[in-house]
Write a structure and sequence with these properties.
- A two-stranded parallel sheet has the order 1-2.
- The protein contains 1 helix and 2 strands; from the N terminus they run αββ.
Length: 283
């Protein structure tokens, strides 16, 4: 069933999915598919704008190039689905299950993903502006090269994720957990990482320009050559951290913990280390 642009009923869509027939280019704007079982469906370049998909099961579905702008997708099952270059802008995926889903190249501006399960999901090259991932599970997800400016990651669980050269400019990561994640060259400029946990992370050449690092934990992370100019790091935990060659000009680290850290060649002009601890640190 190719190039079908007609309006199909729920039963027709169910039968199409069950038979694993390909539906291409269909206009399904505003369609009500809530709680439908559409596992393994093959819907490509279809229009699901403003569709009602709450509680629907689209596990292992192929949804490449589909538009879900403004769709209601709360608690939707999208485990191992293919959403390559899909448009999820302004969609509500709160509580949705996207475990090991492929969203590479997807557009996700203003998308709600509060409490969503994205463990092991592939989010390479994603554009997400002002989206909300608060409380989401991003463990072992891959976000390399994605643009995530001004997004919310408050209390997000993202241990062991990969975010190489990912742009988190102005994002809020309050109390987020990114322990043991690969964040080489990531951009956290102007971001809020208050009480966030980034322990054991490769963060070489990462950019934290004027970020809020109050109470953040970086224990045993690698911040070699990192840009920390103008950060606010009151009481931050940087014990055992490699800060070789880091730019810490005008940074504020009062009462921070630098015990056993490596700070050789770090640039610290104008930095405030009042009350900070440097026991066994190399400076």
């Amino acid at each position: 069933m190719a190039d079908d642009t007609g309006v199909l009923s729920r039963q027709q869509l169910f039968n199409t999915a069950r038979r694993r027939e390909r539906l291409h280019g269909a206009n399904l704007e505003g369609v009500d598919l809530h709680e439908m079982r559409l596992e393994g469906a093959i819907f490509t370049d279809c229009n699901f704008r403003n569709a009602k998909l709450t509680g629907a099961n689209l596990s292992a579905a192929i949804l490449t190039g589909c538009t879900f702008e403004g769709a209601e997708m709360q608690d939707c099952q999208l485990r191992e689905s293919q959403l390559v270059k899909a448009d999820l802008s302004s969609a509500d995926l709160s509580g949705a299950v996207l475990v090991e889903a492929d969203l590479s190249g997807a557009k996700m501006d203003y998308t709600l993903l509060v409490g969503a399960n994205l463990a092991g999901a592939y989010l390479v090259g994603v554009q997400a502006f002002l989206s909300d991932f608060s409380g989401a599970n991003l463990r072992q997800a891959m976000l390399n090269g994605s643009y995530l400016a001004l997004c919310q990651f408050n209390e997000t669980q993202g241990s062991q994720l990969q975010a190489l050269k990912t742009d988190f400019t102005g994002a809020s990561l309050v109390k987020a957990n990114f322990d043991r994640s690969s964040l080489l060259g990531a951009n956290f400029s102007l971001a809020d990482l208050e009480e966030a946990s980034l322990r054991g992370c490769p963060l070489k050449q990462a950019n934290f320009f004027q970020a809020n690092l109050r109470g953040a934990r970086f224990t045993k992370s690698i911040l070699e050559g990192a840009h920390l100019m103008g950060v606010k790091g009151d009481s931050a935990q940087l014990n055992g951290v490699n800060l070789k060659g880091a730019n810490m000009i005008d940074a504020r680290f009062p009462y921070a913990n630098f015990d056993s850290s490596f700070l050789l060649q770090a640039v610290t002009e104008g930095a405030d280390f009042e009350g900070a601890s440097f026991a066994e640190a190399r400076r």
